[in-house]
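Re: that chain you flagged

S.,

Sorry for the slow reply, it's been a week of failed gels. I finally had a moment to sit down with the sequence you sent. For the record, here it is as I used it:
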Amino acid sequence: MCLLGDYLMSTKACDSSLISLMAIDKTTMQDTSPYRHAIYYAPAEHSALAQRGAQWLGRCAQSRRAMQQPQFPAIAPENLRAWTAAATRYGWHATMKAPFTLKPHVEMDAIPEAIRSLAQRKSVFALPPLKLHLKGDYLALVPDASCNALQEFAFDCVRALHPLAKPLSDEQLAQRRRTPLTPSQDAMLVQWGYPFVGDEFQWHMTLTGSLKGLNESQLQNLREAALEWFAPVLNRAVALDAIAWFVEPIAGGDLYEAQRFSLAPA
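Prediction finished late last night. Pasting the structure tokens below so you have them in one place:
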């Protein structure tokens, strides 16, 4: 259930006047290949949700600066760094359109144009309150209820950018299929370049990489630390009032926010 009334959590920091956060530096990317692009939800840089997430990961994808991770008595700092490293590379976000490579001969300006056009057609709405969830083998923040507006918007993001995306190679498809997929997920992979689209989409903000190697005590300590750290932003509705263009400048490089696009007022 999506309720807009009580979402006001640091909305002043999300004001549309701040949306043009930073322009992408094309000169630094001009001769760099390969690199990818994505549409993410990323809370406004100075909001409580953004600050908690960036500090947890040890990096702000908006300012492109390293941050001091929080310390917990039961977790060694080097362990927290190791357990969050995979998520840190992608920055604090929720995926709306998964990273993709631009088609040959398509100008990069087509990406912000497509995102801007989409954002102008969509109105601000509230996500259900967030909760901590062990999603498979990693921790994430997820909405505590379904939200049709979110599902529809995410699919709109995929459809808007897919015409600009280079199709996955046979090697990339095979790599994706190393993780077991349902027939529906495989069909989405072939059609949209990502298996978790449409009905398969599950909005989440990733806190860690795979935790398969942790013992029960370590996992419990990590969950308790995450609950403690994110307590100020849990169980509160969140405004989805902007989407962001993220860029991976080189293969395997840290993704960062290139530009934000405000949604239309509700």
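What I noticed first: Confidence is low (pLDDT under 50) at residues 1-34.

Talk soon,
D.
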